[in-house]
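Q: What would this chain look like folded?
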Amino acid sequence: MCGICGWINREKTGKDRDLTQRTLEDMMAALIHRGPDQGKSWLSDRAALGFQRLAIIDPAGSTQPMTNETGDKVLVFNGEIYNYQELRRELSQAGHHFLSLGDSEVLLHGYEEWKERLPEHLRGMFAFVIWDEKEQKLYAARDHFGIKPFYYTLTDSCFLFASEIKGILPHPGYKKQLNPEALEQYLSFQYSALEETFFKGIYQLLPGHFLEYRPDDDILTLPRYFRPSLHPKKPKNPVYTSEKQWISQIDRAVEESVHAHMAADVEIATFLSGGVDSCLVASEFTGNKAFTVGFGNEPGKYNEIPLAGELARKMHLEHTGKKISEKEFWEAVPEVLYHMDEPSGDPSAVALYFLAREAARKVKVVVSGEGADELFGGYCIYCEPNALKPYRKLPEAFRKKLAGLAGRLPDVKGRSFLIRGSKPVEERFIGNANLFTVEERKRLLLNPTSARSPQELLAEDYQDAKGLDEASRMQYIDLLHWLPGDILQKADRMSMAHSLELRVPYLDQKVFETARCLPARYKQKGQISKYLFRKAAGRHLPAANSHRRKLGFAVPLGNFLCSDTGTAHIKEAFLSPTAKKFFSEEALEELLKKQGCGRRNANRKIWAVYSFLIWYGIYFSEDTEENPT
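A: My prediction, written as C-alpha cells:
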C-alpha cells in the first residue's frame, strides 16, 4: 500500500528542475503516512511522478517509480494485485521479461500487452498511473469497487493527481476553493456524494473507470470498464438451484478469496467484531492476531470486545481489545477529519481510527469485513420491501391519501411506515444514510445552491437497475455510492492514517460473480437480512455470531453529544464564525432542540454539521488557507 502523486505539464519544460523537485517532495510529504518506508520520484521534461512506499510484497525489490526495460513507460501504483503470479506467468509466456518479484511490474508489462483493457485482467485493489514517455500519454485506473482512491484536477498548466486530496494541495497550480454543491449533497448523503469533491475542480476517478490524458491535445477521457450490475447473467458453471448448493458456492467463493488476500511478505492480522462479516473472515484467514475496539465497560451494542474476545479464543487467535474513552473520542475528531480529506457524517470513522492504530502497532496488514452487506444484502433497510409488501397491495391513490394524513400527524409510531409505503423505492431510498431532505437542507443553508435533489442525482442509476426487485435496486445504489463514498473511504483513510494496509476479501470479482447471481429470496427472508450468507457462515461460526442482527460499527453518539464535554464542543462549533458563514442560526437552534437519546433525535444531523465545521477549520480557515495541517 502506498501513496502516489504527480503531474503532467501541458507544455514540455526543462526549466527550474529544482523547483519541480521541491514541489513534488511537498506533495509526497503530504502522503508520507501512506508509505513511510521509502520515498522516490521520477522527472522528465513533461512529467513528475512521486511515490511513498509501504513495503508489503517484495520489500527488497519492486521500488517505484518503476520503468520498463526501455525506460519509456513509468509506473506509480497504490494497491495489491492478488492474481499477479498468474498474470506474470501469462505475460512471461507472451515474451515479457521480469526484473522484480512483486506485483508492480505486472502492471507495466500488462499495459504493454493489453493497453486500456489491463484492469479487466486484474484481481485486487488498485489505483495506478502509467506515463508513456514515447507516446506522451498518461493512463490511470481505479479498481472495480473503489477500494483505493484516486483524485485529479486540470489546472491552467498541468494535469495533477494524487492518492489523497491533500497530496494535490501543495502544488502552486491549484488554487483552493470550496465546492458549495458538495456541501449541499453531503447534508443529505452524510458523505461527499459527487464526482467533484469539496475542493472545487478536484475530482475523484470513479470506481471501475480508467482515464487517459494526452497533454499535446489537452484531451481527457474517462471510460468505464466495470459496472457492478446485479442483473444475473448466464453462469459458466451449472446453475445452483437449492439452498444447499448456493451455501456451498458462497462458502467456496469466500474461502478462496480470503486465501488469495493472504499474499504478503509481512504478517497479516484481522479486524474482529461480534458480527458475522468480520467473524467469517477471521475464521478463514491464516494469521494469528485479531483486533477489536469498543466503548464503555458493559458488553453490548457499543462494546463488542467481550464477544469478539470469546470467539478469538475459540479460534486460537491472539486478541487485542481497546476501549475508547469519551475524551479520546473528542480529541481524535480533528485528526480523523484531516485524514478523511472531506467531511464525513459517519461517527464510526473515529472508532475505525482507533482500531487501525491498535493494529498498526503490531502489523502492517489487516483483513476486514467491508462489502459483505452490499454484495449479499445485509442491511436491515433491504428488508423494508418485505415489510411493505402487504400494505403496497392497496391502491396507490389510497396509500398517498393516507400518507398525506399521516404527514399532518405528530411523530408517532407507524407514521413513517404510512409515508414511506406510499412512495416508490426511487423516492424513499438514497442510501444507508438519508439525513436532511431537500427542504431541510435549504432551510439550514444560508446560500443554498441549485443542486439536484438526491433523487435526481440517482435517477440514471435507478434506471440501470430497472427490472430488479426493490431490495436489489437499493443494493445497487449502495454499491455505486454508499460503499465507495462512506464505507471504503473511511476504511482507506483511517487505516492509511497509521500506515496500515487494509484488505477487503468480500470485494473480490469472484465473490461478486457469486453474489450477483444469488436469487432475491436468498438475500432477505422476511426480516432476516443476508439470509443465505448467514447460513454459509454458520458452517464455521457459532449461532451467536452467524445469526447476530446487523448493528454496524456502533458509537454512543447520543451519550457523547449530551455530555458536558460534547455539549461544549457542539456549542462552540455552532456559534463559530464558520457556522454563521454557512448556516441559518435559527435552523441550528432547532437542530439542537432535538439533541439527545430520545426517539427521533437529530444526533446524526448534528454530527454531520459539526463534522463539516471542524473540517472547514482544518482546510479553509485563514491560517490554513494555503497549507492545511
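Residues 624-629 have pLDDT under 50 and may be disordered.
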